[in-house]
Structure formats: structure tokens, C-alpha cells
Amino acid sequence: MKKYTYIIFAVLLCWTSACKKLDTLPPSIVKDDDVFSNSAGIQAYMARMYAELPIEDFRYSPTRGLNFFWIISPFSCISGEGLSRDQNSATQETFGYWGDAYTLIRDANYFAETLPKYSSNFTPAQVSAWLGEARFLRAATYFALVKRYGGVPIVDKVLQYPAQSIDELKIPRSSEEKVYDFISTDLDYAYANLGESNQVGRANKYVAAGFKSRAMLYAGSIAKYNSINLTDAGGNRLCGIPAAKAVTYFKAAYDAAALLDGKYSLYKKAWAAGDKNAQYQNYVNLFFDATSPENVFVRQYHYPESVHGYDAYNVPRQLMGANGYSSEINPTLNFVEMFDGIPKNADGTIKTTTGGKYDLYTNTMDLFANAEPRLRATVILPGDVFKGVSIEIRRGIYTGSSTGGISPLLPAGSTAHYPTDHMVQSSNASQTPYTLPNGTTMNPAGLSGYFTGDGTCSVSGFSIRKNLVPDKPTSEVLENRSDQTWLEMRYAEVLLNRAEAAVELNALGQNDKSYLQDAFTAINQIRERAGANLLLSPTDLSDINVVRTERKKELGFENKTWWDLRRWRVIDKEQNSTIYRTLMPFYSANDGKYFFDARLDERNSRYTFDVRWYYEQIPQGEIQKSQNLIQNPGY
User: Fold this and answer.
1) Per the omega criterion (within 30 degrees of 0), is the bond before 293 cis?
2) Which of 28, 298, 339, 393 could form a disulfide with 382 if both were Cys (CB 3.0 to 4.6 A apart)?
3) pLDDT of residue 76
4) Where are the beta strands (DSSP E) in 452-527?
5) pLDDT digits (tens, 9 = 90+) for 358-391
6) How confident is the model at residue 73 (pLDDT cuts 50, 70, 90)?
7) What is the per-residue pLDDT for 232?
8) Residue 90, pLDDT score
């Protein structure tokens, strides 16, 4: 990564016009000749654009923005996937991604307009590929804008002032449909001009196709499910896409995803049929193997030049480093219940009682003995082993009689705190060990459990596992000390894009191809690798929720679900004053066994998504600059 940092110039380029009357440029100004006449300059310019690419990765926060160093308000905790120790109920993005987007778009436009003037210094293939990358970067940036705001101003060339008047620079918003079509055209150009391979972390033609499958799937969903409308005086629909365009966009998503056939594959290096441990380890490994055939597009980090703090904020408390952070993301029981192999009631919720009495287990992991391996690789379950130690997650020790069974501690649906009668709990991490009937001692909450006084550690009964480095020493579990790679796009997502587009096309009456059969094959590839139960028939996919659930499971905690819930237009319904569920393990002292209490988050954290948030507020500062910008509804 050092080679990407030795020259910084893109911002200075914005002001070169101010120096035109000077006979000699100040030494701090980098001229076009310095940048575009050699491959090192091109490399540096590209590196700067990729560094600013709007990727919601380890350094993204819905309240703090992109590329932020200290992230303790995780994205997955506004999607229902997890609960945060510190963030109770924020359910929207508030930082306002706009100005930075148009700066990056200008950089891409400047590059595309300037490079051809120096084309004689390079081969035609090099020039084509670099121009393809610039168009890819511009398309990805516009997608970040359109999924937030709907139609936005399309700027496809460098704006010049004072050559252009102020009024000419006040470009109005284009329709949402036109923005998606603009993105599609840019990605088609990138696909046609990029090569089949590139440096890790940079786009190739198949990365462009994968991003097109993502963007067009989003556009198809808006056309089918969105009901919000904003039309300007000229008849341009700024928010919303005509329903008739759904088929067009879903077909584009399907076709783009198919372009990756044979170029990437699901990671199965350590996978073995029928071996749950091998399947678990394989799923863990896929996030750390730099040679994975599943990696389509990644963002690399490397200590000390570029870092993040994911491990410091998310390890179980008993493994935390000197910074004192831990367990920020706590998967909800709602998320865990989606997985196969867990005992369930008729309504799909986890089964923890029989005949109105708690089921007892010798070990906490016994409840999950038959769970699909993908769950263990995504979530640290109470009592599972991580970094060679058993992760102790308890809510307390029950000391009452178990004669005739133990009745539920609280009524169903209650958010009250657990009773203190016949119960030993811990108010904080400095807990007093309790002496059990057999003479041994036990910490009431375990080393990573729920502390009643400050509500820290595992507030859901689970901790995050995905993306945590499995062998990072505790001495290195520090803020801005992690450098694992962010997998922005995996082939699994491309398969899911393809499957969802196929199911949607079938539902819209497009029966000229065997769309359901194709989706069936793609989903079962993912489920087989995950160790989940295979679908039995393509007709299982007649319900779109089957595909959606698979997507939530496979891409959990990868900052994709929140956008999916938004494009499906269901997050307002899912979060209508919602309190997410938790699973609290208790130890019965007189039985020497564990039981589980499934319940609502006792912090009573309620999540609500306002329907106007489907289109975010355009920053007021931008509205004040140009009266041609129409604000989104409700603001």
C-alpha cells in the first residue's frame, strides 16, 4: 500500500485554473505532465480514487460516514442483524454522502478527459483499461448516490468556472431511472474495456459485471416495490421508477451476473461433504484466504499504513485488548433463528421449553449441535470455542428448585428485568464467584456475559464471529491495529443476485427461460457449501422470501442487509416499533445444567424506520447552493 501514498495531487488539480496567469507554478502544484505521462502517476491517481470509493466496510458508520477511523456504531446494528452495546435504536444514515461523491466524480471525469491527451505514452490496451476503471469508479459512486437519494444531478464532464456560468453549474436532478441507466452504460463501458485481471483491489471486467448485477437488481426492486413519488415540473420522476421497467432491470441484473460464470467459484478449499467441522472451518477461512476464488472485489488493509479496529470493537470481553472495547456487535436471536438445524417451534422461533418447562442441557452448545456450520462461522454461540477458549456467556445462575421442571422466569413478551429471587446475577465485570452445591465456583455472567449494571458485553446472548481474526494475539487487539481485507463483493453475492433476479422475472411472467431452475441451482450451491438443508424443488422458490432469507444468512454482517431491506421496501414494516429478541443462557445450580430463555431485549430498545428515509435528505447546504435541486419528500 505504500506505493499508493507517495503522491497526492487530485485535490490540487481542482485549482490549477487559478494559477494559469503565473509564469512558474509553485513547487507544491502537480502538473498534468507529472501525472499522466507515466504509469507511476497514473497508479497514484487511481490509488487516490480507489481510496475514496464509497465502500461500506470496516471503517464505515451510518452516523460518522465513510473511511472513519473510530467505528463503534456498527452498520449491522441498524438492520436487525445485531444489537449494539452502545447504540440502542438509531435506524438511519445521517452523515450525508454528497460532496465527497461529487469530488470523486470530478476526479474520474478529469482523468477520463485528460488521459487521452497523453495516450502516445502508453499502449492502446493500457489506455482502454484505465478509462474503463475511471468509468467503473464513476458508476460505483453514482450508485452510492442513487440508492440514497434517488435521482441526482448527472455530471459526465469536468465543470469549468468561469468558462461556464454559475447557472450552468447548477445542474438539476435527473430522474432516478436515468441515473440507473447512466450507471449501466458506464459499467458496460468498463466491462468492454477492462481486462480479465487486475491488481488486487482494482476492477477488472468481471468486477464491473458484478457491480452491474448489484445496481440493476436494486433498480428492479425500486421499480417493483417503491411507492414514493417525486416528479419535477418537467415530468422527470426524481424518486421512483415506472413499474414497467422492473423486467428490464431484473433481466440486466441476471445477465450481468451470468457473465461471471466460470470466472469465480464458491470457496471450498477445506470443505468436505458430511463433515460439519470441515464446513465450519471452510466458511471461516474464506474471509482470510487471499487466494480465494470467491473474491470478486476487495479493499485491502495493511498495518501500519492502512488499518481499522474491527477486532478491538467486537471480540468477546474475555479476549479484549488494552483499549477496553469488546462485543459491540451482538447478533439478535431473530438473525440466529433463520438458520437450519436449531430446534424450533411451529412458528419458526427457537424451541427452549417442553410442556411449559425449560429444556435442560449439559452444555450450552448442545442446543446448537445440529445447526448448519455457517451459523457457527458467523456467530459466536454461548460456550463455543474461539481462540482456543470457551466463550462464557451467561445471564445468571438459577438457585431455585427444579422439582417438576423450571417454569419461564418472565411472561412471554415481557421486557422487564429478570427477577432476583433464586437468582445470582452480576452487576459488572468484577463479579463475585458463586459456590455451587458441588463445591466448585462459577462467575454468574461468565467472562463475556450480560452485566446488569451497565448493560455491557453480550446483550443478546451471542457475539459476532465473522471477520474476526482467529489467531490475533490479545496484545494486538487494539483500535486501528486490525488489517484484515474487506470482501466488498463475493461470488456468493453474485449468485444470490442472479437467483433473486431470476425469481423476480419468473414472478413477472417471464417464462421464456427456466429462471426458477437456474435460481434453484444457484441457491443450492450456496446452501451446500454452508452445510444447510438443500431445497427439494424449484417450486420452493415460488416464495421470494426463500431467496431473501438465504441472502440475509449468507451476507450477514457484511453491510448488505440494510440496503436489501430498503430496496425491498420492507424495513419500515420490520422495524415498526420493533424490539429485537435475545437468547439468555442460565445455569441451574441444583441440576448442574443449562437452560435458555428466549425473550425481547430487556433494555427495551425500540427500532422504527420512517418511510421518508427510503430517500434520504439532500444536505441543506447543497439545496441552498442551487435552487434547481428539489428536496426529497418529507424534509
Assistant:
1) no
2) 393
3) 86
4) 463-464, 486-490
5) 999 999 999 999 999 999 999 999 999 999 999 9
6) low
7) 97
8) 67
- Cα–Cα distance between 314 and 231 in angstroms, integer? 44
Type of residue found at 383: G
Are the C-beta atoms of 130 and 108 separated by less than 8 Å?
no
Each residue of 35-57: b (16+ CB within 10 Å) or e?
bbbeeebbbbbbbbbbbbbbbbb
Cα gap 350→202, rounded to integer Å: 43
Pure H helices in 37-123:
39-51, 99-114
Name residue 575's amino acid.
Q
Q: How many Å separate Cα 298 from the centre of its chain?
A: 13
User: What is the DSSP secondary-structure string of 318-361?
Assistant: GG--TT-----EEE-HHHHTTSTTS-B-TTSSB--EETTEE--B
The rounded distance, in Å, linking the Cα atoms of 19 and 542 is: 63
Does residue 318 contact residue 392 with C-beta atoms inside 8 Å?
yes
When pLDDT is cut at 50, 70 and 90, the band that residue 89 belongs to is low
Tell me how far apart the alpha carbons of residues 565 and 552 are, in angstroms, rounded to a whole number: 10
CB 618 within 8 A of CB 632: yes
Length of the chain: 635
Q: Do residues 385 and 393 touch, judged by C-beta distance below 8 A?
A: no
Which among 55, 48, 3 is positioned nearest to 207, based on CA atoms? 55
* Residue 491 grid coordinates: 461470488
567 or 161, greater pLDDT:
567
Q: Which secondary structure element, helix H or strand E, spans residue 492, and what is its range?
A: helix 491-507
Strand 385-386, strand 389-390: pairing: antiparallel
Number of Cβ atoms within 10 Å of the Cβ of 274: 7
Cell representation of residue 29: 502544484
Is the backbone of residue 417 left (phi > 0), alpha (psi -120 to 50) or beta? Answer: beta
- All cell numbers assigned to 102: 461529487
Contact 350, 379 (CB under 8 A): no
Distances (CA, A) of 244 to 178, 220, 223, 582, 607: 15, 10, 7, 42, 33
∠ CA 255-554-57 to the nearest 5 degrees? 90
Q: Which of 528, 526, 483 is nearest to 309 (CA)?
A: 483
DSSP states of 591-624: TTEEEEEEEE-TT---B---GGGGSPPPPHHHHH
pLDDT at 211 over 90: yes
- Cell numbers 444531478 correspond to 153
Q: β-strands 463-464, 396-398: how paired?
A: unpaired
Q: How far is Cα 352 from Cα 357, in angstroms, rounded to an integer? A: 8
Q: Give me 378's grid cell.
A: 458467523
The answer to whether residues 429 and 449 touch, using CB atoms and an 8 Å cutoff, is no
* CB contact at 8 A, 59 and 69: yes
Give the Cα separation of 142 and 375 in Å (integer). 34
The SS3 call for residue 581 is strand
**Angstrom distance (rounded) from CA 26 to CA 19:** 9
Q: How many CB atoms lie within 10 A of CB 539?
A: 10
Grid cell in block for residue 435? 459456590
Please, which residues bridge with residue 329 across strands?
A: 84
Among 386, 395, 396, CA closest to 319? 386
Assign 574 to helix, strand or coil: helix
Cis peptide before 304 (omega within 30 of 0): yes
Asked if 176 and 146 touch (Cβ cutoff 8 Å), the reply is yes
CA angle 431, 434, 435 (to 5 degrees): 155
